[in-house]
Amino acid sequence: MVNVQRERKVINMSTVLVTGGAGFIGSHIVDAFIEEGHRVIVIDNLSQGKLENLNSKAGFYKLDICDSRVSEVFDEVHPDYVCHHAAQIDVRKSVANPMYDAEVNIKGLLNILSCAIRTGVKGVIFASSGGVVYGEPTLLPVSETHPKGPLSPYGVSKLSSEYYLYYYNKVFGLPYIALRYANVYGPRQDPMGEAGVVAIFSNKMLKEEVPTIYGDGTQVRDYVYVGDVAMANILSLQRLKETRAPSSIDDHAYNIGTSIGTSVNELYDILSDIIGFQKMARHDAPRKGELYKTYLSIDKAKEELGFVPSVSLRDGLKRTLAYFDRSDLH
């Protein structure tokens, strides 16, 4: 496989609007677009994002994606492309309040898409999920064509969003790519949040506190470093210029992960080894609705996007720990 970093096509400078660009994943994507020479505009209400994450070279509007004033931003900046990462991301919150989840994730998307159509946006990159849209998989690694079976309102909203994108493409001709992320981890992830086991474990271990594993720890996930996710978005921007009308929602969807399954126990052991943490994990009852075993096939992303994850789990964890510890760990 070619080295994507060296061989990817040069993309002419564009104006890219990134929603959620002050958040964990979005801010890394903003950095990558700016490094590529693009003009980047961020919309973020800072409910989850942080100003300190925001690249100083990016334009910034503190605004909710459901706000009608989003249209004024589109009129002012005239984005060529939209990278939509703003969302309600907590599965348990979606279960507790599915109305709110739909308000943000579906109504917010429709607000962005209506503005995109009206102002002639050339394409949309959408942050979907490679875990929640498939449900508990029957075949591993999970390919994009695997039957869908979301088990939470959050999963339903992500899958519904892909159908809305398909509709806007078919009816209005709006190109799009949906990136179905595995478990993304890395610097800037919130260690106090409900999601992000790497950040939660890292923060606790560095403070000599014992993390809690829910269940027996044999649950398997696909952990992908946030820098590789940012690269997937760079590659997707080029791919948007070449996309044709899809025949199904899976045509323009790409799994972004590593194709490697890692158990929670294995993750705990690797982190413990890097840090020198000697304490055994505390266990609690498994969480209802949690998937047991899933990891993604990235063959399609390799073939069509040129996506090749470049950061191993151990190296990515070292970088993440260094961020939380503010020192180099080896």
UniProtKB/TrEMBL annotation:
InterPro entries: Epimerase_deHydtase (IPR001509), NAD(P)-bd_dom_sf (IPR036291). Pathway: Carbohydrate metabolism; galactose metabolism. Gene3D superfamilies: NAD(P)-binding Rossmann-like Domain (3.40.50.720), UDP-galactose 4-epimerase, domain 1 (3.90.25.10). Residues 16-257 form the NAD-dependent epimerase/dehydratase domain. It comes from the Bacteria. Belongs to the NAD(P)-dependent epimerase/dehydratase family. This is UDP-glucose 4-epimerase. It comes from Acetomicrobium hydrogeniformans ATCC BAA-1850.
